[in-house]
Amino acid sequence: MEPAIQDHYPDDAAACYGCGRLNDQGLQLKTRWVSDGSGETATETESATETVFTPRPEHTAMPGFVYGGLVASVIDCSGTGSASLAATRDRGIDLVGETGSDAVRFVTGTLEVRYQRPTPMGPPLVVRGRIAEVKGRKVTVELTMTANGETVATGRVIALEAPDTMRAAG
Ligand SMILES: CCCCCCCCCCCC(=O)SCCNC(=O)CCNC(=O)[C@H](O)C(C)(C)COP(=O)(O)OP(=O)(O)OC[C@H]1O[C@@H](n2cnc3c(N)ncnc32)[C@H](O)[C@@H]1OP(=O)(O)O
User: Fold this and answer.
1) Is 144 a pocket residue for ligand 1 (Cβ < 6 Å)?
2) How confident is the model at residue 2 (pLDDT cuts 50, 70, 90)?
3) Whose CA is nearest to atom 50 of ligand 1?
4) For a pocket test of ligand 1, which of 73, 82, 140, 160 has the largest count of ligand atoms closer than 8 A to its C-beta?
5) With pLDDT > 70 as the criterion, what percentage of the chain qualifies?
6) What's in the GO CC field (predicted)?
7) What was the ipTM of the complex prediction?
8) pLDDT exceeds 70 at position 109
9) Fewer C-beta neighbours within 10 Å, C or N terminus of the chain?
């Protein structure tokens, strides 16, 4: 299995509620390259990212359905994780070992979510991300969340490389 980018965030950038591996109370989302079958070479083939999360009972909006803020959070950190995967690959950085500090860290600049249908509580939520644009320190990612194979939400994240001031504040 491809490494999860969040396992390669520096320790001082791994406390995020959505995707920080060091946040015991958080969602601990993991984002990886997957094959979307569209290309022939490994780089072309691994052109999509994937994040999978199974909501817990406390993530309920109304009985049987997932809270929209949770849906947004999963799309958000899928987007920043995808941006980090793209920038890390573009800069030729190899993710070495199970954990490390070799990933380029991104924050959310803009998050857009369109809720397409109620999200059922129970099945895993699968988010596929497509890198729409890499422009300097800015990466735009388009995302689709499915549950039981049906699209429940789509989104767009504009992610910016984390400024050092955020490290200082943390
Ligand atoms: C080191 C590890 C530390 C550790 C860091 C650990 C971070 C953990 C974060 C976890 C994830 C989160 O929850 S993040 C929390 C939510 N997000 C935030 O709080 C971010 C708050 N905003 C900011 O700090 C700032 O606005 C930034 C960093 C996003 C952008 O500032 P900047 O880096 O000075 O950007 P700037 O040079 O002006 O613009 C560069 C390009 O990006 C575009 N751009 C600028 N801001 C935005 C924006 N909000 N949305 C869309 N696009 C934007 C500009 O138009 C320009 O495009 P062009 O003209 O080049 O086309």
Assistant:
1) no
2) confident
3) 109
4) 160
5) 91
6) cytoplasm; membrane
7) 0.93
8) yes
9) N
- Kindly state the DSSP code that residue 102 receives in the 8-state scheme: -
- Between CA 56 and CA 166 the distance in angstroms is 30
How many folded domains does the chain comprise?
1
Residues 149 and 128 sit within 8 Å (Cβ to Cβ): no
* Token pair listed for 17: 């509620």
pTM of the model: 0.93
Say how many Å lie between the CA of residue 167 and the centre of ligand 1. 13
Which residue, by CA, sits nearest to atom 49 of ligand 1?
Answer: 109
Q: Taking the mean position of all CA atoms in its chain, how far away is CA 107?
A: 11
Q: Where are the beta strands (DSSP E) in 4-99?
A: 31-34, 48-53, 60-62, 65-66
The encoded tokens of residue 21 equal: 């591996």
CA 83 – CA 161 distance, rounded (Å): 9
- Distance, CA 141 to ligand 1 centroid (Å)? 14
Three-state DSSP class for residue 38: coil
Tally Cβ neighbours within 10 Å of residue 49.
27
Domain residues for the domain of 126 are: 5-166
Which residue's structure tokens are 């799309």?
Answer: 75
